[in-house]
Design goal:
mainly alpha; globular; 0% strand
Length: 217
């Protein structure tokens, strides 16, 4: 079933996602305004989600904001998540980069929200819209691969993040093409992403973002 919106709107949404992606390089990487950028992008896109929900609730459900298939999708992703977590811990142990502090708790609580927004942008508005464009002739595996490349490129220059997000996006793209549920994707994205920072990357996103507001150095 193709969602009842025009190709013009699809292209505008894809363009808006690409502008947001460009903003990441400018505001997060160059200017080091991580928290302001994430907060602003989250607010803007949540506002768009609310607007869409008020004007077309079925479109939101079509994009994946739904609960009717939550359990089924969670069962599909759970084995991948377990293998990923075991791999993170093993890599972290090998690298001596395990850094499991209490800081991970607020990250695991808040990051799924940002993770859901990211999946909405990458999977629903980019991959989903590309799949649904009228007369597009690119097959689905290539579209999924392209979306995974985009998601990986957004995490340049960190090689571990680029590898991790590429694999995650490939798997998520396949899941989304079969059963659309952004809630499950967002929750797993947040949990896996948070653990990835504290095990493989030896980084503390709490300090990098919220910690600057509360911790005196």
């Amino acid at each position: 079933m193709i969602s009842p919106i025009s190709d013009k709107r699809r292209i505008l949404e894809i363009t808006a996602v690409l502008i947001t992606a460009a903003g990441k390089f400018i505001f997060m990487d160059y200017l080091n305004w991580r928290l302001p950028f994430v907060a602003t992008a989250t607010l803007v896109w949540i506002s768009y989600i609310i607007y869409t929900g008020k004007t077309d609730k079925e479109l939101l459900k079509y994009h994946g904001f739904r609960t009717d298939n939550f359990k089924a999708v969670a069962k599909m992703i759970l084995p991948f998540g377990i293998v990923a977590i075991i791999s993170f811990i093993a890599i972290g142990y090998y690298q001596s980069t395990l850094n499991l502090t209490w800081h991970i708790i607020p990250i695991l609580i808040t990051y799924p929200i940002w993770g859901t927004i990211q999946q909405y942008l990458l999977i629903a508005l980019t991959l989903g819209n590309m799949q649904d464009l009228e007369n597009q002739k690119i097959n689905n595996p290539i579209l999924i691969f392209g979306a995974a490349l985009l998601f990986s490129a957004l995490h340049y220059p960190d090689k571990w993040l680029m590898i991790g997000t590429f694999v995650l996006a490939l798997f998520y793209g396949w899941i989304y093409s079969r059963k659309r549920n952004l809630y499950v994707l967002g929750i797993f994205h947040g949990v896996l992403g948070g653990l990835f920072y504290y095990t493989v990357l030896d980084r503390d996103p709490f300090i990098e973002t919220m910690g600057k507001l509360f911790i005196n150095k």
